[in-house]
């Protein structure tokens, strides 16, 4: 079968033929992939940035962790599912106590074990979440980034009546904006840098306060919005450390920045104003497992309102074209669809 693989600890990926998985470990099933989304993390792996060098010992590896497919083996064969990509070890004290969210010896599908930029992928059955009949493959492919966004808004606290800034209009930033609106935020501003396509996607979903800071610096834009109070909350979804420094300067006293981006270099922070203004900096990463069924239900409720988030659906054989579109910010979410033949 065709697969998109990271083969060496350097920039680039390769489309290669690999065998269909033949051996399943206890508790695993074989999933036929219907569609898999290109994530910002995949772009970092493609570029081989320092923040993803941790996967080097696991190369070569098939990428792809945002996916929907159909179970092809075991008692649930034929069931359409999304798959949580974070695989718990099953051996540590937390796993033995069924406290899987606390496991710290994980493997990541599409990072440190083979992923879904292929026709077939192995996955633990417990990671497979049934997709409701009313949720299309296209919408189901957005569950993983929406789960990340759900964790981010949880970390932020009550959003009702709040003034919110989302820095970074990628899929996670877009999902944060959608959830913030749903949770009653009074005003939502989203910024990007040379991000016309992704800001247009937000516009199509009903967001108006959109700023491309490559054309108009945010501080300049804010001078034209006298009715906009200082931000209560800022969500950082860029992966650029300098945006955090900027975000802290835009907060009201006691304001909160929630960091969701993965950064390839450290942040230099002046702590004096941070302390005197009683600001808070909160990290957000992996959601609890219990969020996934909730996000699937949310996909059914949001429906076509978030359909603009998927801009391109390409065959897996054109994966490099999809990556180029994503790298160049010429696409919103790109889905890769395996070929019809299954390789079995």
UniProtKB/TrEMBL annotation:
Keywords: Metal-binding, Oxidoreductase, Zinc. One of its GO terms (molecular function) is metal ion binding. This is Sorbitol dehydrogenase. It holds the Pfam family ADH_N. InterPro entries: ADH-like_C, ADH-like_N, ER, GroES-like_sf, NAD(P)-bd_dom_sf, Zn_alcohol_dh. The keyword Metal-binding applies. Residues 12-336 form the Enoyl reductase (ER) domain. It comes from the Bacteria. Coiled coil: none annotated.
């Amino acid at each position: 079968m065709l697969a998109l693989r990271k083969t060496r600890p350097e920039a680039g990926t390769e489309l290669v033929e690999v065998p269909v998985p033949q051996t399943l470990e206890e508790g695993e099933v074989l999933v036929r992939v219907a569609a898999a989304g290109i994530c910002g993390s995949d772009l970092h792996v493609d570029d081989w940035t320092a923040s993803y060098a941790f996967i080097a010992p696991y190369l070569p590896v098939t990428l792809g962790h945002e996916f929907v497919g159909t179970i092809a083996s075991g008692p649930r064969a034929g069931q359409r599912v999304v798959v949580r990509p974070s695989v718990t070890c099953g051996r540590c004290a937390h796993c033995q106590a069924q406290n899987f969210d606390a496991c710290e010896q994980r493997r990541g599908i599409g990072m440190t074990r083979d992923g879904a930029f292929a026709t077939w992928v192995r996955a633990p059955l417990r990671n497979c979440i049934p997709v409701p009949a009313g949720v299309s493959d296209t919408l189901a492919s957005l569950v993983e980034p929406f789960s990340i966004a759900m964790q981010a808004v949880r970390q932020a606290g009550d959003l009702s009546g709040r003034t919110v800034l989302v820095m970074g209009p990628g899929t996670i930033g877009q999902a944060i904006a959608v959830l913030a609106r749903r949770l009653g935020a009074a005003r939502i501003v989203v910024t990007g840098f040379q991000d016309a396509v992704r800001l247009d996607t937000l516009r199509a979903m009903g967001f108006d306060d959109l700023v491309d800071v490559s054309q108009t610096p945010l501080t300049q834009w804010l001078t034209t919005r006298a009715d906009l109070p200082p931000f209560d909350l800022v969500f950082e979804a860029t992966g650029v450390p300098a945006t955090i420094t900027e975000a802290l300067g835009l907060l009201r006293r006691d304001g909160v920045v929630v960091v969701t981006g993965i950064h390839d270099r450290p942040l230099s922070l002046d702590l004096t104003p941070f302390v005197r203004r009683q600001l808070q900096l909160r990290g957000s990463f992996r959601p609890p497992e219990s969020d996934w069924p909730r996000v699937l239900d949310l996909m059914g409720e949001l429906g076509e309102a978030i359909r603009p988030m998927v801009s391109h659906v390409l065959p897996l054989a054109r994966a490099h074209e999809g990556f180029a579109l994503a790298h160049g910010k010429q696409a919103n979410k790109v889905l890769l669809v395996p070929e019809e033949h299954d390789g079995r």
